[in-house]
Write a structure and sequence with these properties.
Layout: H1 9-15, E1 21-26, E2 34-39, H2 40-49, E3 52-54, H3 57-61, E4 66-69, E5 74-77
Antiparallel strand pairs: 1-2, 1-5, 3-4, 4-5
Length: 90
């Protein structure tokens, strides 16, 4: 089991792109991934509200290096630093 790496708010902001929209995906528990673009403001609100962690290797490999749980599902967030090793920062 991989160790959980919590990412502080400021680091989350640094890792996402600068655009107005940020890509995300959820895995509803099947072999299906559902993608959506979120407004940057809504992503920042979620980063403040929920504990954000580094995602696992599979999600990182697709460029979604952050993940949070909103009480219902895990939401994976696209990052610009998707080639990090767990716990590493640039």
């Amino acid at each position: 089991m991989e160790e959980k790496v919590v990412v502080p708010f400021e680091e989350c902001v640094r890792r996402i792109g600068d655009g107005k929209k940020i890509h995300t995906f959820v895995n509803p528990g099947t072999n299906l991934l559902i993608g959506a673009d979120w407004d940057r403001k809504k992503i920042l609100e979620a980063f403040r509200k929920y504990e954000v962690e580094e995602s696992g290797p599979a999600a990182m490999a697709t460029g979604h290096g952050l993940v949070f749980h909103d009480g219902t599902k895990y939401i994976f967030v696209e990052t610009k630093t998707n080639n990090l090793t767990k716990g590493e920062t640039k």
